[in-house]
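From the shared-data thread, chain only:
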Amino acid sequence: MLAAATPGVTVIDLTHQVPAFDVRAGSHTLVRAIPHLGPGVVLAVVDPGVGSSRRGVCLEVTPLRGEPSFFVGPDNGLLIAAAESAGEAPVARAFTLRRDQATVERGITFDGRDLFAPAAAALCRGVPPEDLGDPVDPHTLVRLTGGVVERGRLSDGRTCMRTEVMWVDHFGNMQLAATYADAQAAGVPPTGTRGITLVTPGAEGEMTLRRVDTFADLSPGEFGLLIDSNGHVAVVAGQASAAGQLDVSAGMLVVLAW
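Structure, as tokens:
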């Protein structure tokens, strides 16, 4: 639809592999992609609230250098983190999208096709965003809650960090909400240390992790802890799925102790 409505415009398909209904995973995907995209129009749809009172929006960001960029999609927290990352500043302007009455006869369950894609195509053709909808205060945009990162001590005196599993990738690596800065502040032991343990929900015991720099530092099946390519702490396994072997999924809370 986009290619047909915007001849001559390059359309880059980022992914169709975001888990169904997982708005947070979609948000993370966009944030990861932003550093590698130039100015343009970003269309994103992870929309379990389609047909409800949630707004469809267009966000305009003005980067420090270059042309403005626009983000089009549902106002459910999917867009805002990526938009702010792209602009390195708050969102400049936001608009609620007006629905074309011609689409009502086909129902209101496919906003990706009937609302968001036409708006993105119009922006690509140079239509100003104010022609697509009404302005809204960017401060009213829906934001996702941040991931849990808590520091403390266990009853046996060990230092610990309780944190949320934010993302499980195709290989089963578990990206945690804790960042490199969080790890530094908590005092996570340095590379080469084997005395880090992981406690997962429902675990009968503790899993020993080795603090490493790369996946290649681990033997096949060995569990490790590293800083991943996005600056987050990650629990991984050598040539294996850490999440699969530990029966952990995104949204769970785990405890690292040392």
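The CA atoms of residues 2 and 117 lie 7 Å apart.
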